[in-house]
Specification:
Elements (H helix, E strand, L loop, with lengths): L3 E9 L2 H17 L3 E6 L12 E7 L2 H9 L1 H13 E9 L4
Length: 97
């Protein structure tokens, strides 16, 4: 089964409040067996408008990634993030190997 991935670029406006988001989202990621593969505050941006902190999180499947995103725990974290940042976020299915 192919892995599922959350890919995001986050432009943070309130670094203090972002720490609360990180705590809540970290617990939600762990609860859904997610694995943070990338967390880079200054990626080598080459094209497009998706700037900011780059995040890539791996889940066992695209369904697991969706379950994480739609979970009550992440919904709570997301409500904080939406107030203190601008975010581009996608869920994608990896290639089956």
């Amino acid at each position: 089964m192919a892995k599922g991935y959350l890919v995001a670029h986050i432009r943070v406006h309130d670094k203090g409040a972002f720490e609360e988001f990180k705590q809540l989202s970290g617990a939600a990621i762990k609860a859904h067996n997610g694995k943070v593969l990338v967390r880079n505050p200054s990626p080598d941006h080459r094209e497009g408008g998706a700037r900011g902190l780059a995040i890539v999180i791996e889940f066992e499947s695209i369904d697991a990634a969706r379950a994480f995103y739609e979970s009550d725990a992440y919904t709570e974290a997301r409500a904080i993030r939406e107030k203190i940042s601008d975010t581009d976020l996608i869920l994608v299915e990896g290639l089956q190997t």
